[in-house]
Amino acid sequence: MRVLTGIQPSGDLHIGNYFGSIKQMVDAQKTSNTFAFIANYHAMSSGNGGERLAQLTMQTATDFLSLGIDPNKSTFWVQSDVKEVLELYWVLSAFTPMGLLERAHSYKDKTAKGISANHSLFSYPVLMAADILLYSPDIVPVGKDQIQHVEIARDIAIKFNNEYGDILKLPEFKVEENVATVPGTDGQKMSKSYGNCVNIFGEEKKQLKTIKKIVTEQVALEEPKEYEGCNVYNMAKLFLEEDALLDLQKRYKAGGEGHGHFKLYLADVMWEYFREYREKREHYMNNQNEVREILQNGASKASEIAQPMMEKIRSATGIRY
Ligand code: ADP
Ligand code: TRP
Predict the structure, then answer these.
(1) Residues with CB under 6 A from ligand 1
(2) Which residues pair with 172 in a beta bridge?
(3) N vs C: which end of the chain shows fewer Cβ within 10 Å?
């Protein structure tokens, strides 16, 4: 089964990104033929460009490789290294009714907020359709906010196939329902835009400082504490095996320790959990050429699928004459 996903290069990764998305991708490598790319063209629609975009692209690639994307199991590349995607984007534009894009949330939300949208934001779903349809995946795992984009890709594929035959495979989206929303330091959903993130790769001291900011109930030290609903506990449970979790529950119930102790424990557990990944990252940071090489190989592998597909589309549409 072929699974495909795109990742926006948007900066430092937090533990919400890890448990909500990256870990699923890494786990999927065991059972599926996984395709993952860094969506650098997409990032331009939200104003990223220049040296910053180049740097974010390398950082994101480095982080994903460090966290377990295995280039021997997955095809991992940068979107802009396989140019067929832009050609398909144009072809698909001719099968995209304006109304379909006018109804897209990503564009509607921005314009509703008074943000003046540029054309790349408007046509973002068409590029995303090209990303998907070029590689004929069976499944596209997405967060809820991206479901509509996969549906748009299906609609466009149906219109294209009606005209030119059964060339494009209709993708299915998959939303991982049992992935809990990871809370941030203030208890809301962890998100870069809320400034409540615990980042995966940061200095130990800085991480501890962030963890100390987690909002908790005020309960006297000697009193028993409630772990259900506690932001520290909810974060810690992401990292703990069952036995360790039961131990932590007992410590909450026993009293005699404050939330400060649990925060120190969380910081330790998290530091240990990511130790191996940090070491791998250190290696890749010191060997950025290795990362570039992996991405180039990934792009070659992706091209082996993209090129014949695009040839088929050129023939069908009369671009090849
Ligand atoms: P952010 O909200 O920090 O900008 P993104 O929107 O870039 O994060 O999210 C990238 C991926 O990480 C998405 O697949 C999203 O579903 C997942 N993700 C982000 N925040 C969380 C969270 N708090 N809990 C679970 N998953 C999350
Ligand atoms: N739009 C997706 C996001 O913001 C990223 C993305 C781009 C993507 N192209 C894709 C995801 C193709 C899945 C398939 O998260």
Answers:
(1) 8, 10, 16-17, 20-21, 143, 181-182, 189-193
(2) 139
(3) C
Q: Which tokens sit at 38?
A: 């860094």
SS3 state of residue 113 = coil
The C-alpha atoms of residue 185 and residue 71 are separated, in whole angstroms, by: 34
219 Cβ partners below 8 Å, 6+ apart?
225, 258, 259
Structural domain boundaries in the chain: 2-181+288-317, 202-273
* Residue 101 and residue 125 in contact, taking contact as beta carbons nearer than 8 Å: yes
Atom 12, ligand 1: which residue's CA is nearest? 17
CB atoms within 10 A of CB 311: 13
d(CA 159, CA 48): 32
Query: Which atom of ligand 2 approaches the CA of 42 most closely?
Result: 7
pLDDT at 178 over 80: no
Average pLDDT of the segment spanning 227-248: 96
Residues 236-247, buried b or exposed e (16+ Cβ, 10 A)? bbbbbeeeeeee
Rounded Cα–Cα distance for residues 118 and 46 (Å): 9
**Distance of CA 18 from the midpoint of ligand 1 (Å):** 8
Task: Check residue 35 and give its pLDDT.
Answer: 98
CATH superfamily of 202-273: Tyrosyl-Transfer RNA Synthetase (1.10.240.10)
Average pLDDT, the chain: 95
Q: For position 179, what pLDDT does the model report?
A: 77
Give the pLDDT of residue 309: 98
| Residue 6 alpha carbon to ligand 1 centre in Å | 13
Ligand 1 atom at minimal distance to the Cα of residue 183 = 23
List the CATH code of the domain at 2-181+288-317: 3.40.50.620
Q: How far apart are CA 37 and CA 16, in angstroms?
A: 20
List, for residues 85-142, the tens digit of each pLDDT value. 999 999 999 999 999 999 998 888 888 888 888 899 999 999 999 999 999 999 999 8
